[in-house]
Structure formats: structure tokens, C-alpha cells
Amino acid sequence: MDIIPLSSLAPGAKAVVAEIRVPVEHRGRLLEMGLLVGTTVELVRFAPLGDPVEIRIRGYNLSLRKHEAEQVMVRQGR
Amino acid sequence: MSAPPPSVPRDTRFTVVLTGNPNCGKTTLFNALTGLRARVGNYAGVTVERKEGAMLGADAAHPVDVLDLPGTYSLSPQSLDEQIARDVLFQRLADVPAPGLVVVVVDASNLQRNLYYATQVIELGHPTCLALNMVDVARENGHEIDVDGLSVALGVPVVPLIASDGEGVEELKAAINRSAVERVSQKARKPEHAPAVAGPLAHPPTGSQARLPTDARRSEPRSFQELPEAFGREASAIRGQLAGIFPHRDRLASAEALLILSDDKVLAAHPEQYPPAVRQAVAASRARLEASGVDWRSAAIEARYARVSAIAQHVTVESFVEGENFSDRVDRVLTHRVWGLMVFVGIMLSMFVSIFVLAQLPMDALDAGVGWLADRVGSVLGPGALQDLLANGVIKGVGAVVVFLPQICLLFLFISLLEDTGYMARAAFLMDRLMSRVGLHGKSFIPMLSSFACAIPGIMATRTIESPKDRLVTILIAPLMSCSARLPVYTVLIAACVGGGALRRGMVLTAMYLLGIVGALGMAWVFKRTLLRGEPPPLILELPPYKRPVVKTVLRHMWDRSKLFLRRAGTVILGINVLLWFLVTYPKVPTGADGAMKPTSGSVSQDAVGNVASAVASGLPAGSPLRPDEAHGQVDSLQNERSGDQLRRSFAGRLGHMIEPAIRPLGFDWKIGIGIVASFAAREVFVSTMSVVYNVGEVDAGDRVATAGLAETLRGEKREDGTRVYTALTGITLMVFYVFAMQCVSTIAIVGRETNSWKWPLFQFAYMTALAWCLAFVTYQGGKLLGF
């Protein structure tokens, strides 16, 4: 199955992180917050003004800019 | 930062260090442990808040100090706050004692990510205890945690807690006390080693049969990751090297080796911390790892998360909970496309309107109290320079500022509430898009919002911003947000110049706040495109679950911050008022008809009428002598003119006159000039200055100090041609000036300290003053053109 950017998930949809293309200098904290390859992620909602996005990983809610969410590639389950 | 000296064991007190992720309830736990006796200060050389206090209920023979570290997500710091937390745990700060016990606070409802940090801390090898907080929230979400199982898996005692209800706090205190007593008895046995090898707790205080694992009395700290083999090999080589170079912190060597190997920022940011040999070895290790296909940046993080999620799954019994949890339901409304923004604007608006409405009663009471006190002092001391100084300089001057305490308390109350409920993060989430338009991100919103209270905590709050450039931009624009010190200025000017009901006044006030926000965003946009260009770092913002605020924590927060304001009133503002009183009182108007400068015995003299006449005569141009009978016939108006003359000739009057040419295009007269000059030290001084300035205009022989409010006095103030000085346009222009001008010595000092330079605060002062003048000019001249 094809991988798609996290930002193109529909609100409420779940997927598994397949690849993180965020530049290395910004990657560290994202990984430490628990967003790793293989992590299940749910896109909760987009902010009222369209950016940032709210996601749910490991049982808590985190918000990222669309710009980074576009660089996190996910695979949706069947 | 230089290489730290070897840690010196301090055996006087037992220090407990509280650490944990942001939003884990650490502050509430700290308050529960220390009661109201905490001290708030700074770490040496930096303005990271250092909170510590003696633990309540400690054994009298074994006093315990609790140190609350800033919230942090990992030991690879991304901000100054996190760096301090790491440095304390790594014993790199000379003035912080080595931890006798580290209490890691863990949010049970967010176990995996909290354990990520907790295991990092446990690996440091300090005696450690885990405070498993918010077990009630976890239960509501369907997670029942096996406390004993967690204790066994981590190898440290685990105390379940609900810090907000005080549940489990006694058990944690008991565990801390046991640890303190044990350390002392160990030291008695082996004094040369303590506290560096202080053992773990004797008993896991879980109340059950849980036992510490057999390796509890370890010499080697535990490790919570199965690293790829090559990575493990490289890490242990570096560990050996570190242990050889820094024998005093050999316990930390394993954890430190892992961090400097996998975090490229640590070595780059502090090259002086490590000798070249270490840096070369790390670079060589990374090259070898890359060659063998191991990602040294992510390997350790992935290995730890793998282990931590296995532990979390093992100790958590999941039960199915139907539907969404409370926070999800609330967020459906509060981050909704339409409702979310409406609620946000509503919250901001009601905050400022209620500051006006609710604070009115206590403010009137304080005002009356200040007037009464000044009267009492006046009648007890009797006329004279001392009475004048105390009543008008000190009591009335400081009182004019202290009167605003209710408003300031309310503002801090709202901000504390927003923070403690978790709404502040949503505000950042909602506002991030706007902030990104000017090149900042949502995290800058929180310092900016705090700057509504005071730029000082706001600027201090910028420490959570990772990028140095973004942080600097936020510092530069933070004072444009209308702080609480401007509130008194706005209040008086609105009452004097605008008038109208609470709604209308509230709207003008909101407009001033909005103007500050627009100005701040505009300047941020300019700075990000000129002086401080740079790609903003990604936003990584946790949206914590909503919490019922803990009344004590909120009030504590409010009080700590209001105290800062009161302290300023008691020190800086008091000093300025005494100085001002001197400036407006001296030199005395000459009493002799020849105009010689003879000092009088005080501002009140028995033959006041004669004085007035001669004073006025001497104030008139030479060649227009006034006959005594004429002078006596005009006594009433002359008395006012006499004091006006006194003011005109005083040092303050001369300063005001001196800057009058610069401020006349803004529609300000020299009396306003005095207020502006005085408030370059602190804005709120404007109010007290104006009351000193106009009291001087009202005090005359034998009369009591006028009790009319300052606003009414200003309202009645006339120009020579009989028009009002404080028209709506003047008032608005003056407020615009105050929105933009940098008039706060304390802020300048804080910016100097935070940026470690004098260049930035001076630049900030210059650009803000220029901006204030230009915009006030546009307002006044534009207003006149439009016919106001």
C-alpha cells in the first residue's frame, strides 16, 4: 500500500508512521515526543485557521504545523 | 559555562529534586509538599525560575529541602529551562547541592511519553523514586496501572498519587523522610562516601509486598533500552573515556555517553564541556555507526521507546471506556472552526471587562484608605516638609499605584486559570496560524499573553522558545503588549478623557490592548524580515488534557506574581516618588520681592497670602509690578497660580519644559511632560506623578489635600485659553504613546540579563520610543485634521 503524508489524513483517521522526512536538525524532539516509525497516529483535527494540526499518539495529543505533518509519511491500514 | 567543579557533598540538608514532563502536576505536588513556604529565585547567571522550599512534615532532625525543576521532555534540552533541569541532574551547577533523592513525577494518564523521561532520569543513578500522579485521570480513561509491577520493572519505588486532592502525598513524604534518615545513617558509617553513594529507599512505599529488585543496591545504574549492538559498543567505549576524565560524576557516565553520542546539539552547544579527545571519539563513533547503517540520532530513542512501551503495556490493565474522554468533548467546542474562535475572543473580552467591573469596589476602598492614611499622617505630624514628603510624596504617590492591586490580582488570576486548566495551550493552537504569518509560532503567544500582566514574566517565559532568534524577536516585542503597569495609566486617562459607562470604557481599553497586539505582531514581522531572519523551528506543542484548576495552586501563582508588583511599588516606585517629590518641591519659590532664591520653611507657611502675591509678582515679567491690594483682591485664583508657579520653577517643571518642544506636536503640555519624564523609569509612576503634580497644584495654606480623584482633577484641568487639557484626543494620543513607549527600567534590566548584552535593551528602548513618538504624532495631528 502507498504511503501518504500525515497531513492528508482525514480528521479521525488512523495510520502508522512509515517514514519521517523531517530534516535531521528538527527531527530529534519529534522522535523524543514519541512520533517514531511504526507509531500509530490519529489525525484529530485541523486548527480553526487551517494550521496547525492536532494528532494523537501514544495516548496523548500533540500539535504540529502542516509543514512538518507533510514530511511525516504514513501508511493506512486495510 | 565552564567545566563544573567536583561536587562537594553538603551534609547540612537533604535535597529532594522534583522533575518531570510539563503538565504532569509537578507544581501542584511541590505546593503540597512545601505548603506556602517556598522561595522563588533564579539560578545563578540565568533567569530560569528556581523554586525551592522546606518540606512540611519532615523529621525535625533531618530537614528536607525540595527543589522544583522546570518541566522537561528529555535530557537533550531544547530550551534554557530544559538545559537547567539537565544541568541540575548532571550536577553541573556549583550552587545546587547534589540530589539526595530524585522524585520523577509521571502523569499516569500519559504513561509512555512520561516514562521516556523517567527512565532517562533513573539511568543517571541517583537514588530515585517515582511519583505516579493523576492515577484518577488514568482510571477514568480506562487505564488501571499495576503500581507494584511498575516498581519492579523500573527498579525504583513507585508512589501512586492524586496531587490535586492531596491523596498519596503523605506516603510520598514518608518515603522521602525514610530516604533522608537512611542517608544520614549511611553517612555515619561511611562518611567519606556520602552522599555520592547514598542507596535507594529502604522500602518501596507502595504499602504492599512489593520488593525492590535484587539489583536495587546497584553500583551500576540500570538501563532501559536494548541498543543495536554496534551502538552499544560505541556508547560503552565513550562511557569508559568519560569515567576516566570526570571521576566525580562516574555514576552519570553511561547516561552521558549515550546523550553525547546521539544528540549532536549537546556537543555543538557546549564544546568547552568536553575535551577534544572526547569530541574526536564521538565523531569517529558516529562515522563508524553511519558506515554500518545505524542511525545514531534515532537508535537510542527508538530503543528506549520500544522498552518503555513494553513496560507500559505490561503494567497497564486496559478497560474499555465508551465514547470520547472529557478533554476530547471540550475540545470539540473550544477548537471548533467557528465556536472555538468565538469563545477565544469572548474569553479575552470578558477578561478585560471584568477586570474593570470586579475590581471597582476594592479599588474604591483602597483609594479611600490611602486618602485617610495621608490625612492622618498630615494631622499627626503637623505642617512642614516632613509631613509634605510623607503625605504627598510617599503615601499618596505609592498609594496611587497600590490602588491598582485588585486589577492586577484579577489579571494574574485569569492568566493562572488559563494556564492551569490547559486552555493556554489551546490558545497557542488557535493563534499559531496568525503568529506564523509574522514568522513566529504559537509558543510565542504564551509569553506575549503573559506580557499582558507584566513584560518581565513574559520575557522570562520566552525561555521555552527553542530558537534563539525567535526568542529574541519575542523579547523585543513583548513590552508592546499592554502590561498591568499601563492599566492604571489607561484607567485614569479613560476616566478623565473618555468617560461613559463600563461598556464604553471597556471598549476603549480593549482597543488599546488590541493596538499593542497589532504593534507587536507588526514589529515581529519587520524583525523577522530584517534583523533576525531565519526559518522558524517546527512547532511541537502538547495539548494537555483539561484539568480542574487547583484553587491553591492558582491563588499561589496569582500571589507570587502580584508580589512582584507590590515589591516594585515598595522599592522602585517609592524611590521614584521621593525623588519626584523632591523635584517638584525644590527649589522653593523665592519669597522676597526682589526675587532672591530664599528657601522657605516648607510648602505650607502662615503668611501664605503674602507669599502668593509676591510669588506671582516675582513670576511675572520684569516691568509689570503688581500693587499689593490688587494681589489681595485676586487671592483665590492667585493661590492656584502660586502653586503652579512653584511647579513651573521646580526641577521637574524645568525638565518638563525642556522636553516640551519635543512633545508639543503630540498635543502634550509640560505637566504631561513631567509625567512622561518620571515614567521613563516605570509606567505606572505616571499616575502617582500626576497626583503629585496636581496635588502640588492644590495644596495651599491651611487647606487639606483635595480628596477629589485624580481623574476628576485631570478632567477639570484647563489651558490658558480655557479649553480642557485632557480632551478625548489628548487622552487617546497619550494612551497611544504609552502603548508603544518603553518606559520600564526593570524590563530593560531583564532584557539585558536575558540577552546577555546591553545592545539589545538599548536598541529596544530606542525603537520603541521612536515608534511611540511617531504614532502619537500621527494620532494627534490626524485627529486634529479630522476635526476632533
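Chain A has a mean pLDDT of 92.
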